[in-house]
């Protein structure tokens, strides 16, 4: 590839279902590479396999990308000058290349029916259509020119298969792995054009990557075995000089490192594997996604970027701009990256801490509404001041309810076991006096409430710990929550006095 070529990369998913986090990482690395080099990031929908097409999957993929902030420069809904961006719509452009390959002796017509191939599979359990048995099967190589012409003229259904050479070594330089080579005899004669006239992935990917002037390809490691077929096609079609650079990304592994992370691992271990909720229209099954589980897109993207890449330092928190700036292919590791859900949660915590309140507010309100509150009754300033206090404690925005519901409603019950056994009349008196003392205050802020309360304890002769915990439980219901004087401040004078007065009788024996 010439170095002055414009960087153009593509994310090329097949619209067959929910988007696995590995797929999003592939999209992300493509995006980061493109943006780092001021290039273009293209979305191409690879929908040539009509049997696997799932309605809604394409829209879902686009929504996932938008959620992650990976907006394509060209896509089916935002076409550039290289369209169409759905392979099914490019159908007429493939046959001529398949036929060119036949004419040049690099491919052949195969007339075997599905039944005949099934029969072969029954007889030979390891059946593959390849150099060592193709002469025993029904194709233009075994049948000869005349019979082939007759069958074609008669309109006999046929596929076109690549004629893999025997005993050749095909090699390329992978941007991550370095030199990778393949023994062609081990690769079967892949179908290039199907009987329905649609190309297979192998033909379409090569034709389209060239037509769309793709300069670099980042794709999952699972596509590495297909590389020799693609390299030969670039060569046989006379496009060798234009071949893009390839990078095969390391797998994302199960938490224990044993094999590729699958959707089933998520179901089994209780974490999402898809980017967003996926409703399978065929089975009606719903699979939870990171988005609906409560992940911020910034956290999800940050976590994915670090699955197989780092910038060479200990830094773990990166926003998209910084990722674009720092991304480099030589820091992508060859080894598979273990998925760690606890780490994913940590990223979310970190990003919630960093998120501006205004950004979190709509989601926080949604949580409150979900619990039956009418958020119109509260000012944004009030909700944001609470967010400031509990933000550090949230793994998910949903935790806001657990951490902060007491700001919006009085405790329904108290952790009486923590106070009742040691309760005394003296304590009741103390709190009744605190309520009176509070009532006299004209300003209401934690900085003055704290010394006021602590002086009162000192005067009483009781111990700090004996009174601080009950005070917290009166306001919150339990032994949790942020600084008790901050809580006092946010709750407001009337509310605090009322909560003290409601709680005292319940703590008495
Ligand atoms: N359509 C392939 C997929 O679903 C794309 C592979 C590639 O990027 O070449 O992953």
From TrEMBL:
GO terms for molecular function: ATP binding; glutamate-tRNA ligase activity; tRNA binding; zinc ion binding. InterPro entries: aa-tRNA-synth_I_cd-bd, aa-tRNA-synth_I_codon-bd_sub2, aa-tRNA-synth_I_CS, aa_tRNA-synth_I_cd-bd_sf, Glu-tRNA-ligase_bac/mito, Glu/Gln-tRNA-synth, Glu/Gln-tRNA-synth_Ib_cat-dom, GluQ/Sye. It is found in: Cytoplasm. A motif ('HIGH' region) lies at residues 13-23. ATP binds at residue 263. Keywords: Aminoacyl-tRNA synthetase, ATP-binding, Cytoplasm, Ligase, Nucleotide-binding, Protein biosynthesis. Residues 6-346 form the Glutamyl/glutaminyl-tRNA synthetase class Ib catalytic domain. GO terms for cellular component: cytosol. Belongs to the class-I aminoacyl-tRNA synthetase family. Glutamate--tRNA ligase type 1 subfamily. This is Glutamate--tRNA ligase. It comes from Sphingobacterium cellulitidis. The lineage of its organism: Bacteria, Pseudomonadati, Bacteroidota, Sphingobacteriia, Sphingobacteriales. The gene is gltX.
């Amino acid at each position: 590839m010439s170095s002055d070529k414009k960087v153009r990369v593509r994310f090329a998913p097949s619209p067959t279902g929910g988007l696995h986090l590995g797929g999003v990482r592939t999209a992300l690395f493509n995006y980061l590479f493109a943006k780092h080099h001021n290039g273009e990031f293209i979305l191409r929908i690879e929908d040539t396999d009509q049997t696997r097409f799932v309605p809604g999957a394409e829209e879902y993929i686009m929504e996932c990308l938008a959620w992650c902030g990976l907006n394509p420069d060209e896509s089916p809904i935002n076409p550039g000058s290289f369209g169409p961006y759905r392979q099914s719509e490019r159908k007429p452009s493939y046959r001529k290349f398949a036929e060119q390959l036949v004419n040049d002796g690099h491919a052949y017509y195969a007339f075997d029916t599905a039944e005949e191939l099934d029969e072969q599979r029954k007889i030979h359990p390891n059946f593959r259509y390849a150099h060592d048995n193709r002469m025993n099967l029904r194709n233009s190589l075994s049948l000869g020119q005349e019979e082939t012409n007759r069958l074609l003229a008669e309109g006999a259904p046929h596929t076109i298969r690549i004629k893999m050479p025997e005993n050749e070594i095909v090699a390329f330089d992978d941007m991550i792995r370095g030199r990778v080579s393949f023994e062609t005899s081990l690769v079967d004669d892949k179908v290039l054009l199907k009987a329905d006239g649609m190309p297979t992935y192998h033909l379409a990917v090569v034709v389209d990557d060239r037509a769309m002037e793709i300069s670099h390809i980042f794709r999952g490691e699972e596509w590495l075995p297909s590389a020799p077929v693609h390299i030969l096609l670039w060569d046989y079609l006379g496009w060798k000089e234009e071949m893009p650079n390839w990078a095969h990304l390391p797998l994302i592994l199960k938490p224990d490192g044993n094999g590729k992370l699958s959707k089933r691992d998520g179901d089994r271990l209780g974490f999402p594997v898809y980017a967003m909720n996926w409703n399978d229209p065929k089975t009606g099954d719903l699979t939870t996604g990171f988005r609906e589980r409560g992940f911020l897109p910034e956290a999800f993207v940050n976590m994915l970027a670090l699955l197989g890449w780092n910038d060479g330092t200990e830094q773990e928190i990166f926003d998209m701009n910084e990722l674009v700036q720092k991304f480099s292919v030589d820091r992508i590791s060859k080894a598979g990256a273990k998925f760690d859900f606890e780490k994913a949660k940590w990223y979310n915590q970190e990003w919630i801490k960093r998120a501006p309140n205004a950004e979190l507010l709509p989601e926080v309100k949604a949580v409150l509404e979900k619990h039956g509150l009418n958020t119109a009754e509260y000012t944004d300033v009030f909700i944001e001041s609470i967010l400031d206090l509990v933000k550090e404690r949230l793994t998910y925005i949903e935790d806001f309810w657990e951490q902060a519901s007491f700001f919006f409603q009085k405790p329904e019950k108290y952790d009486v076991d923590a106070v009742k056994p040691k309760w005394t009349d003296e304590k009741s008196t103390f709190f009744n006096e605190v309520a009176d003392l509070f009532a006299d205050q004209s300003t209401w802020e934690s900085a003055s409430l704290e010394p006021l309360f602590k002086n009162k304890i000192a005067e009483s002769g009781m111990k700090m710990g004996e009174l601080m915990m009950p005070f917290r439980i009166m306001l919150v219901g339990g032994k949790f929550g942020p600084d008790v004087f901050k809580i006092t401040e946010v709750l407001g004078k009337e509310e605090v006095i009322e909560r003290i007065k409601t709680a005292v009788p319940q703590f008495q024996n």
